Amino acid sequence: MMNGNKPSVYVETTIVSYLAARPSRDALLGAHQAITHDWWALRANYALHSSQLVQNESDAGNAEQVAKRKDLIAVCSFLEITEQDLATAQALLTAVALPHKARADAVHIAVAARHKMVYLLTWNCKHIANPMTQRKMYAVLEKLGLELPYLITPEQLLEMENGD
Length: 164
Fold this sequence. Notes:
Elements: E1 2-3, E2 6-11, H1 13-20, H2 27-40, E3 47-51, H3 52-58, H4 63-73, E4 77-79, H5 83-96, H6 103-114, E5 119-121, H7 131-143, E6 150-152, H8 154-161
Parallel strand pairs: 2-3, 2-5, 3-4, 5-6
Antiparallel strand pairs: 1-2
Helix pairs in contact: 1-4, 2-8, 5-6, 5-7
């Protein structure tokens, strides 16, 4: 879905978590946080969307971090989660053989697909932005008349912004 000339982005929970977190001492995680901040600085180039599920997931933990995540999510338009999305998520879980704990990840994908998001932005490369499972996800969604959004990290989206 395009909002004017802006591509639509479903902002998944890891994005606001990385933005709100204290800088990590772990080199890779710290780099991911920095990249996420770099992408966030360009967010005006995109129509940002999220869902109540992201809000619910963001409500856990340290009160200061929860408040930061809520402020970050507030810039997003919220997409409705329907029974259809929950059924689509279950179909994704079954087809891709994801563990039950990945149910929320499948819901993010289902919501983004039904709302025709161009991108689903995430650092979850185990259950969401995993090239090994995307073909199966694509097939499930195609049978349901839906399109799989680009499941992408901020690093990949930044590279596209920079023409790399």
